[in-house]
Amino acid sequence: MTLYNTLYMNKQLPLSFQAPEFARFDNFIITGNQQLLHALIDEHESLIFLWGEHGCGKSHLLQAVTQSYQADEKAAFYLPLAQLQELTPDMLDGLEMMDLVCLDDVHAVSGYSQWEEALFHFFNRIRDKGGRLILAADNSAVNCAIKLPDLRSRLSWGLTYQVQALDDQAKVDALKLRASQRGMQMSNEVAAYIMKHTTRSLPELIILLDKLDYASLAEQRKLTIPFVKNIIYSV
Asked: Which residue would you say has higher pLDDT here, 50 or 7?
């Protein structure tokens, strides 16, 4: 039984809260985020706050650092707060025993007094235990909607980085890299077609890649423009 199950088997948390296997440092295009990446890899940095627009890669980075700890058999836990609206803040109890805790979507619980109080006390507990805490939100700690002054102050204690969103060329690189890691060959022409005929949101591009992966395996097809066009317009 994993440490995850041992600690939380009575809280009925879905296993989907664990970081997915595809989010790793080696499939993150680091353009504009080199310093941030170094800070995440440096385990001496005990508190890091990431912020940026939706789809810029915050969740990927939190999931990647969680994966790296788990690969080294260290206790690490990734928690997307945007998915926890129906759960109570006491789920944070005991997490301070982890080597690493990554709290995603902090903005999702801002303004909720019980959650803010729970986060404040959890922050103090994990700091006292010497654990590492990495958080992400859609705005900086200074400008976020947290109402509890002491919590907002503590979120500013560590390193703060704005995650730089990828430009279109970097998104193409990311898409081709992900495709290659799944065993699919994606030409520049196919990648350009996808970029022209989709919203260019990186999370949505990855969802499309999932569908292409499934369809290409099911139909034993290569990623040609006619095949991709059919998948895009059948969604």
From this structure: 50
